Amino acid sequence: MNAHHTASPPAKVSGMQTMRDKWNSLSRVQQWAVLIPLVVLIYLLPVLNPPLLTTEPNYNFPIAMFDVARYALIAIGLNVVVGQAGLLDLGYVGFFAVGAYVAALFTSPDSMLHKLPYLAVLPLAVVVTMFFGVILGAPTLRLRGDYLAIVTLGFGEMVRLLADQVPALRGNSGFQTVGHPPGTRADGTALFNQTDGKPWYWLAVTLVIGVLLLVGNLERSRVGRAWVAIREDEAVAEIMGVPTFKYKIWAFVIGAAIGGLSGALYAGQIGFVNNQKFDVTTSVLFLAAVVLGGSGNKVGVMLGAFVIAYLPLRFSGIAEYKYLIFGLALIVLMLFRPQGLLGARQRLLAKGREAYQRLLGRPEQISSDSSLVAEPGKEAGA
Amino acid sequence: MSEDVTAADQPEVPAEGGIVAEVARMSPAELAAHEAEVAEAVAPDREIEVAVGDTLLAMQDVTLQFGGLVALDSVNFEIRRGEILGLIGPNGAGKTTCFNVMTGVYRPTSGQVVLEDRPLGKRKRHEITQLGIARTFQNIRLFGEMTTLENVVVGADARHKTSVLGALARVPRHHREEREAVERGMALLEFVGIADRAADKAKNLPYGYQRRLEIARALATEPKLLCLDEPAAGFNPAEKEELMGLIRKIRGDGYTVLLIEHDMRLVMGVTDRIVVLEFGKKIAEGVPAEIRDNPAVIAAYLGVPDDGAA
Amino acid sequence: MNHVVTFLADGSDWINFDVGALRDQFWNDTIEGLSQGSIYALVALGYTLVYGVLRLINFAHSEVFIFGVFGAYFTFFGLGFRPGPTPELGAGELILYLALALIVAMLVSGATAVVVERVAYRPLRRRGAPPLVFLITAIGASFVLQQILFIWRGGNQERAIRLMRPQEVFTIFGASVTNLQIIIVLASIVLMLIANTFINRTRLGRGVRAVAQDPDTATLMGVNKERVIMLTFLIGGLLAGAAALFYLMKAPTGASYQGGFLLGIKAFTAAVLGGIGNLRGALLGGLILGIVENYGQSVFGGGWRDIVAFVLLVVVLMFRPTGILGESLGKARV
After folding, report:
1. Chain A within 8 Å of C134 (Cβ-Cβ)?
2. Domains within chain C, CATH numbers bracketed
3. Within 10 A of C167 (CB to CB), how many other CB atoms are there?
4. What pLDDT, in 10s, does the model give residues C53-108?
5. Which of residues 346-375 of A touch B (CB under 8 A)?
6. How far apart are CA B79 and CA B58, in angstroms?
7. CATH number of the domain at B50-132+223-310, please?
């Protein structure tokens, strides 16, 4: 059957491929020796404001970089759901919104609720969005995957509608002066304010790195293996002893948590939350970030986030058409390169590196296809 | 699909380092010692003193209906600990359906499946795996994007207890289980003879390797009963011979095996007892020699009407 | 009878509800719900048909619908009508113009559906892409169509063009029934009967059912699968186009690039409610949804109707995921 769908062509040695192989053959120490300066460079970016990279004068560069980091955080979270577990979540903006509203409700003077310090609100936003994740995931994740897509799509819209309708959420007038982390500058103004994006960027990058490490821990454990097994063949995963429902809920909830975190972060930086910022088109942008760079691959989705967030700011000519462009990109990409720009496979064993080395005297092959590539015998109708 | 997969590059000559290369260079004595080590890792906690021959799994009056269609009609048989039981019958006789009932894919309309005196009842599929039934698939269903080793470790995860939070925080149990799973996974790959492709994606393996990986993945769940669904499909005679050896070796390690197979020579050659199904009914049961001479079985296979058949 | 739920003692309102309003509005809500619901049902049929045949939620169907709305709107425009007061038309003229708009809307939606299928989905089928890829493409296609409208017409709603004003024809239990509501309900039912007869009685319709049951066997039996799929999209599109005209007649400001989104989700809810893949289920689901969201609107207030619809979707999935009448067309596959 389907003999014409080749399982996989012999791996072509592309530039990307050799780079990846080289990277994999380095030892941990060598890898850190490259990574640490890179991280330092990333932290310094808004200070350096490099000439070609800068978005000025159209758009404040540190704030642009904050947006990129925020999108990266979102993409990493959504990637857990879409890229790892293969669940299409189209209401991610809903979780983002819940996070933002939690931050607003507990820090803005416009809210009647008890005030909390901003840094305490971040974990609270995570918990509340996880709760929403369970509420939404429990009924839908038992069903076929496509139901999840439409229910989450509806959820994204519903959060917006609720913000409109529930008087306490203040609809269009929204919440002013959302809180921010503590600290003052020499001149007495707040360290984290709306005009200087740098502290916010550093906070965002730190959160990105923290979340990356934690998600990486999950990925290289039975949890990550369960997710990928579910994505590959849910029925078989179940028969091989994977409690699929439980792990799908976890993927969904962890994704939601990261979405909520980024929402709260966004609310703090922008300082103002109302119902106009969370439309479903934004959800599709988030999805595009994940799919564009290479879903399932953390570096890939961050690249995707960079493309989605940065390009319209850098080249303001395309900003008006960005939705159209990214929508077309989704279609074209699914057709010609469903694995995304960088489609590396993720590692799923905590001790894999040593094991392969010991067993074979060489590291594993990391070839550039991934989850979304057609597999023989698996059709949409099947 | 098979053509393409088989056409994929053949196993490379083992690289310089690594166990695989080492094994290739071993002397017979070293090899025997190494194999004993592997066998120990493959079947770690076998209770050797378990009486071979008592009932492991019993199908008790299992009937399965889809609407008006009766797929299984009060099927009764049992699988004894330590044996290789063959399940044969013409196409559509209900063999794979039998597997699906045992592994919880279908619930019997009436009757029950009992594993070690415990009825499977309404248990979920993953719970049945944890109780000790594992299976392979007639049409190979591996996790194609995972490596060979990762596929096996997914099977081993069925026995793991690390929680999601434990994995997040990398608790000591997580480290221990990861290490053990990798060790056992590697041993299993050696056991079925595909360790040299441990690092490759499952979907890039040659066909015969994929079939063996299915067996290794099922073994990794530490089953009491291993169900093999036409493991020799698409094999040439030499490969079938090897497979028979492997199945015997698996039994020798203390596993009980249920085998669905079309190839009569293989079934007759490897099984201890055989159950024959036709149109969802059991028509015969016995040792291979009895089955070979059973007129009802011959009639079922040759399609000759026979009064004694029903 | 006005209740307010306030919690966390912060003094601000969270949810208000008024059961008395539902009692007063019950029959009005029901009748209006039926006419609204028949629009949902027509669009739901498109989701159901495509889902039955391809096991795909065609996210772009909401844009197929909204293209039809624009088709009808610009037919009115082309006939010389402009935003402003409703013209006085004779019955013959009115029927002629509406029929013309109906045909245009159906053709526009039908063509859009077929183009989406040809450009976006068919190449993926050829490659045997996994379901997730189809879904992402579907959402991408929906997005692109929406943006095309946005770039062409901008973000504002088109100003209303009305051809007829709703007039009370008779009353039931004190609730008035308008000519508009009667036209919409009757026309929708007629169209759905035609679609149902087509699927169940004709040779081509048999092909559709055969592919829905088992695509491979149907192909072996000589059914041209590609043609059946195209036909399915076409029928779904045509019905969505009809729904588009009725929608525009009910809510003349409905022509907005984003207008398809909510209606699409509701129509899908209707399809799931009745049992996705089930033609009669789509009708039943549409009507129930239309009525229930009107009740919800009376109880909770105007903006809540959409939220009520969504909550209904989640509740249905929770308790009866196969819908009221069960899945059909082909049987659900694992």
Report:
1. yes
2. 21-319 (1.10.3470)
3. 9
4. 888 889 899 999 999 999 999 999 999 888 888 888 888 889 999 999 999 999 99
5. 348-352, 355-365, 367, 369-371, 375
6. 6
7. 3.40.50.300
